[in-house]
Specification:
The chain is mainly α. The protein is 81% helix and 0% strand. The protein is elongated. It starts with a helix and ends with a helix. It holds the Pfam family Sm_multidrug_ex. This is Small multi-drug export protein.
Length: 166
């Protein structure tokens, strides 16, 4: 599925529902890689959902899924290292690519740019593969999601206002 049909599906699904279910869907869509806050926040606000509630719910969905990803990654990594030995993971080409990204931008740059460039889920995985501590990854990614959510909510509200649609 390409991005355009994805946008249409998200918008259509949100438009077909009403009330509390719309906010539940905002939470779910924000938690899904590829959709995330960059897609769901402007669509939800454009459909008339409350901007403050939309921002809070979308933030919770996106940040919650990233936290779950970090916890899952740590458990999977611990299991894998216990089963295969630690040296195996450091020799893969994926690790080398992640390391190059990490060396160039570090966790702060990856966290801030990640939501727009790769998606926050991919950015979190890259940070973890490059050796970032789980706690640092969660803190930086959560802060980045908060900033991006605020920017998207304010931008969507201002954009609708400038277009005379609010």
């Amino acid at each position: 599925m390409t991005i355009s049909p994805l946008l249409v599906e998200v918008g259509a699904t949100l438009e077909e529902t009403t009330g509390l279910l719309q906010y539940v869907l905002v939470f779910v869509f924000a938690a899904i890689p590829l959709v995330e806050i960059l897609v769901v926040v402007p669509i939800a606000i454009g459909l008339g959902l409350d901007p403050l509630v939309t921002g809070i719910v979308a933030f919770a969905g996106n940040a919650g899924s990233v936290c779950a990803l970090v916890v899952f990654h740590r458990r999977l990594s611990n299991w894998w290292h216990g089963r295969r030995g630690e040296s195996d993971s450091k020799s893969s080409s994926r690790y080398e690519r992640a390391r190059k990204l990490w060396d160039r931008y570090g966790l702060p740059g990856l966290s801030i740019g990640g939501p727009a460039l790769t998606g926050v889920h991919v950015a979190a995985v890259v940070a973890l593969l490059a050796g970032s501590r789980s706690r640092d990854t969660v803190v930086w990614m959560t802060a980045s999601i908060a900033v991006w959510t605020i920017v998207l909510v304010v931008g969507s509200v201002l954009g609708l206002s400038l277009l005379g649609l609010s």
